[in-house]
């Protein structure tokens, strides 16, 4: 809780800073700023606090997750980008802080290359949003 409000942390991993220009046929035309603005609006309508971070660095994402343990974060929404399919370390960070998380992907990873079907997060996520 943050100032009496439920608090959500939204983490976007590598290459998601390029949303809007990156392979728009897969990821669409909305920028990360657009996505964050609509998340902010949604949080306001729910009287919740929201914070956003994006990084292309695995360690920076892990450090932010660790900080969430003591900054009042109640839940995390994470799009780990390419780290979805590789990162035991980000998985361990999420499990280590014991904050419930939702896994989110802009594209439907299950309709793409077979190696995108495996996620290090899905079995521990409270919910999964794809596509
Ligand atoms: O970077 C990304 C974005 C992604 O997480 C998505 O949002 O659809 C899917 C991943 O496979 C990919 O590496």
Automatic annotation (TrEMBL):
<dbReference type="GO" id="GO:0046279">
    <property type="term" value="P:3,4-dihydroxybenzoate biosynthetic process"/>
</dbReference>
<dbReference type="InterPro" id="IPR036441">
    <property type="entry name" value="DHquinase_II_sf"/>
</dbReference>
<feature type="active site" description="Proton donor">
    <location>
        <position position="105"/>
    </location>
</feature>
<feature type="binding site">
    <location>
        <position position="79"/>
    </location>
    <ligand>
        <name>substrate</name>
    </ligand>
</feature>
<dbReference type="InterPro" id="IPR001874">
    <property type="entry name" value="DHquinase_II"/>
</dbReference>
<dbReference type="Pfam" id="PF01220">
    <property type="entry name" value="DHquinase_II"/>
</dbReference>
<feature type="binding site">
    <location>
        <position position="116"/>
    </location>
    <ligand>
        <name>substrate</name>
    </ligand>
</feature>
<feature type="binding site">
    <location>
        <position position="92"/>
    </location>
    <ligand>
        <name>substrate</name>
    </ligand>
</feature>
<dbReference type="GO" id="GO:0003855">
    <property type="term" value="F:3-dehydroquinate dehydratase activity"/>
</dbReference>
<keyword id="KW-0672">Quinate metabolism</keyword>
<dbReference type="GO" id="GO:0019631">
    <property type="term" value="P:quinate catabolic process"/>
</dbReference>
<feature type="binding site">
    <location>
        <begin position="106"/>
        <end position="107"/>
    </location>
    <ligand>
        <name>substrate</name>
    </ligand>
</feature>
<keyword id="KW-0456">Lyase</keyword>
<feature type="site" description="Transition state stabilizer">
    <location>
        <position position="22"/>
    </location>
</feature>
<feature type="binding site">
    <location>
        <position position="85"/>
    </location>
    <ligand>
        <name>substrate</name>
    </ligand>
</feature>
<protein>
    <recommendedName>
        <fullName>Catabolic 3-dehydroquinase</fullName>
        <ecNumber>4.2.1.10</ecNumber>
    </recommendedName>
</protein>
<comment type="pathway">
    <text>Aromatic compound metabolism; 3,4-dihydroxybenzoate biosynthesis; 3,4-dihydroxybenzoate from 3-dehydroquinate: step 1/2.</text>
</comment>
<feature type="active site" description="Proton acceptor">
    <location>
        <position position="27"/>
    </location>
</feature>
<comment type="function">
    <text>Is involved in the catabolism of quinate. Allows the utilization of quinate as carbon source via the beta-ketoadipate pathway.</text>
</comment>
<comment type="similarity">
    <text>Belongs to the type-II 3-dehydroquinase family.</text>
</comment>
<comment type="subunit">
    <text>Homododecamer. Adopts a ring-like structure, composed of an arrangement of two hexameric rings stacked on top of one another.</text>
</comment>
<dbReference type="InterPro" id="IPR018509">
    <property type="entry name" value="DHquinase_II_CS"/>
</dbReference>
